[in-house]
Amino acid sequence: MNQGEPCALCQQATEIEKNTPSYMREHYIDGAGQLCEHCYEEIAQNKEWHNLL
Ligand SMILES: [Zn+2]
């Protein structure tokens, strides 16, 4: 098993490995953490991610 960092919102494992530096990550929000692709797209659309945490 090669589980990645869990999504900060839905806890689903992402493809980002835990030792990946934040500047190399996709779907990463500073102050929030790693998100999965699905959550990131929703947040990128409504810009209200801080209300979800
Ligand atoms: Zn998610």
Description:
- It is a single chain.
- The chain has 53 residues and is α+β, with helices and mostly antiparallel strands.
- The chain has one domain (1-53).
- The protein is 19% helix and 8% strand.
- The protein has 1 helix and 2 strands.
- The chain has a two-stranded antiparallel ribbon with strand order 1-2.
- Strand 1 and strand 2 form a beta hairpin.
- The model has no long low-confidence stretch (mean pLDDT 85).
- The protein binds zinc ion.
- Residues 7, 9-10, 12, 35-36, 38-39 line the site of zinc ion.
Dominant shape = globular
The averaged pLDDT comes out at 85
Q: Name the hetero compounds present.
A: zinc ion
Question: Which structural class is indicated by helix and strand composition?
Answer: alpha+beta
State the separation between the terminal residues, measured CA to CA.
Answer: 28 Å
Strand order of the largest sheet: 1-2
What percent of residues adopt helix (DSSP H or I)? 10-25%
> How large, in whole angstroms, is the Cα Rg?
11 Å
Organism: Effusibacillus lacus
Protein name: DUF2197 domain-containing protein
Topology:
Blueprint: E1 28-29, E2 33-34, H1 37-46
Antiparallel strand pairs: 1-2
The chain binds zinc ion.
